[in-house]
Amino acid sequence: MEAKTPDDTAEREAFYAAIEPESLRALWSVMGDIITPEPRSACLPFKWRYARLRARLLQAAELITAKEAERRVLILENPGLKGQSKITTSLYCGLQLVMPGEVAPAHRHSQSALRFVLEAKGGFTAVGGEKTVMRYGDFVITPSWEWHDHGNDSSAPVFWLDGLDIPLVQFLDAAFAEGYGADQHPIRRPEGDSLARFGANMLPLDHEASRPTSPIFNYPYERARGALEALRAKDEWDPCHGLKLRYSNPVDGGWAMPTIGACLQLLPKDFRTQPYRSSDATVFVAVEGQGRTIIDGQAFDWEPRDIFVLPSWREVVHEAAEDAVLFSYSDRPVQEKLGLWRERRGNR
Ligand code: GTQ
């Protein structure tokens, strides 16, 4: 269906002008813009170099403390969505820095957050009474409405990516937030508690799911990477993804977060993926190796810690110049729940 907008005759224009003050609009005059044959997004493909981001964050650290800022973060704003604090239409991405000795005070909000650790020699995040040390490549979850604070008790700055569903929650006008009133929420469980209870392919005997988010809050890189490494022996490469695993909620097997889906994929040296598109705009982080990603013919080369965004329904091809690992996140869980998610493999 390609709706053709009817011509704007003088009579019709006069009618549109007459009904506008009555808060009315003629569907046929806008149909082609709101019911499109395929996704039509203002979101643009774009890449941020980590070295640049890092330098800018260190400049920010001269201007403001983590405590005064509450969160010292530079938002990765999509150039097609300026002023909107979004990396895709539905998702947010920021890069956060906590300097040695600093704290980012405890607060909670309805938005869910993921952290993907980019540089750390210690430093922690605490969620709902448990602390986890952050290491390179760890995928850490802050569920909706859980108290959380961050701190850095190491001697080196800690940098991580924040992925949140801020635009999605904003769209629904369902956003709430509050400060805890102290830097840190009390610690109630020992470190590693959630991984012991839920991360050994076992569950506490009478566990009942009480929320839609995974009870594991740090998925260590070592384990995820180890799984990919073990699986490569089987030599079963998906033509469009290489070897791609999704982070799951051990309680129900679903996505680890209700609004954001996260994955880790391995592309072996010289692998070139088949053209692919999907309706979930996706944020990628290069974790290991060098390569490039071609989005509708536009090439973006990457190296570890670079971040790039793939808009909805654009054709993507990844090329790995050496063994490469990519982390990614998107709103796919939401689209799946609503029966909206689509993909297309190959060029038609
Ligand atoms: O660490 O709690 O990038 O509340 C944006 C909002 C990080 C956080 C962000 C937040 C946080």
CATH superfamily: Jelly Rolls
Number of strands: 22
| CATH fold descriptor | Jelly Rolls
- The spatial strand order of the largest sheet comes to 1-19-16-21-14-13
Can you describe what's shown?
By secondary structure, this protein is α+β, with helices and mostly antiparallel strands. It has one domain: Jelly Rolls (Sandwich). It is built from eight helices and 22 strands. The strands form five sheets. Strands 1-19-16-21-14-13 form a six-stranded antiparallel beta sheet. The radius of gyration is 22 Å and the shape is globular. The protein starts with 9 loop residues before the first helix and ends with a strand. The model has no long low-confidence stretch (mean pLDDT 97). The site of 2,5-dihydroxybenzoic acid (GTQ) has 9 residues, from β3 and β10.
What's this model, at a glance?
With 348 residues, the chain is an alpha+beta fold.
Describe the secondary structure blueprint for this structure.
Blueprint (H helix, E strand, L loop, with lengths): L9 H10 L11 H4 L11 E3 L1 H14 L2 H4 L3 E3 L16 E7 L4 E7 L3 E7 L4 E4 L2 E4 L5 E4 L5 E4 L6 E7 L1 H6 L5 E3 L13 H6 L19 E2 L1 H11 L11 E4 L14 E7 L8 E3 L3 E7 L2 E5 L2 E5 L4 E4 L5 E5 L3 E7 L1 H6 L5 E3 L3
Antiparallel strand pairs: 1-19, 2-3, 3-10, 4-9, 4-11, 5-8, 5-10, 6-7, 6-9, 8-12, 13-14, 14-21, 15-22, 16-19, 16-21, 17-18, 17-20
Bound molecules: 2,5-dihydroxybenzoic acid.
2,5-dihydroxybenzoic acid (GTQ) binds next to β3 and β10.
